[in-house]
Amino acid sequence: MRAPARVLRTMVISAMLTAGVAACGTTDTTDTIRINKEQGSDQNIASLTAVINSNPSDPEGYNTRGSAYGRAGQFGDALDDFNRAIELNPRFYQAYANRGLIYRNQGKAELALADYNTALQLSPRYDVAFIGRGNIYRQAGQFDAAMNDYNRAIGLDTTDPRAYHNRGLIYQRRGNHAKAIEDFSTAISLSPNSAEPYNGRGISYAALNDNDNAFADFNTAITLDGNLAESWANQALIYERQGNLKKAYRSYAQALKLDPKYQPAMDGVARTRTATAAN
After folding, report:
1. Are 91 and 40 within one domain?
2. What is the mean pLDDT of residues 122-137?
């Protein structure tokens, strides 16, 4: 039996807001290390190693190679290089922040927080450390502290889109979707080829029942990066709102193919498969 339209719409809106905000709030791709085959290639690392070998007392070389190791997913080697950079220059605040990001990727929040604090003690106007520390606070549910750090980075005229994107996530969580859209839009202007702020903005548009703009943002996110399960699930939710359950099912299925453990996609596939069969 087909659910009444009003009941289905309520179910879809609830699913959208739950899935969307949860994805943005817990899947933090704006301050995690993405594997970059080019920057983390053996050839690039070998080139950086040659630079280090020619000047082994220069902490900058270790910091640069550590970043390359991080992008290659070689976190142990990255930590070794950042540790060496700090050993050579204990006031190298960028290396502390870089090491903090590695610790965060490893789930070592306390160590990451300590490194961000040290970076800020050494350089109180270092926007990257404010953003990194804000993300630690946000993931711990300390939203006021996180907001304060993002505001401080933005107050320093940062051009780092993560400050705006992540502040937008907090506004979104608090139901202030107009402010969230404003911040996501700024993040997009600073990094127009990143899919994440389009997803974030689309979720807030959807929360305001602006389906057209939400759909446009989710489609843009897919165009920019078709490998994000969140983007496909978000697109599917709009299809579901529109009553196009067959397309919704296909998009959910694509999301599930990309991430078999992504709960919104699992729920969406089950829901739309049943609804489609009922028709």
Report:
1. yes
2. 98
What is the token pair recorded at 177?
């979707």
Written as six digits, the tokens of 42 are: 């053996």
- The range of the structural domain enclosing residue 68 comes to 35-107
Does residue 207 surpass a pLDDT of 50?
A: yes
d(CA 181, CA 171): 9
CA distance to 107, 111, 126, 211, 258, per residue, from 217 (Å) = 31, 36, 31, 10, 19
Q: Which of 159, 193, 227 is the last residue of a domain?
A: 193
**Is the confidence at residue 190, as pLDDT, over 80?**
yes
Q: Domain of 243: which CATH number?
A: 1.25.40.10
Note the pLDDT of residue 271. Answer: 93
Q: Indicate whether 42 and 97 sit together in one domain.
A: yes
- Give the percent of the chain with pLDDT over 70: 85
- 24 and 91 assigned to the same domain: no
User: Would you list the DSSP string of 176-234?
Assistant: -HHHHHHHHHHHHHH-TT-SHHHHHHHHHHHHTT-HHHHHHHHHHHHHH-TT-HHHHHH
What is the per-residue pLDDT for 274?
78
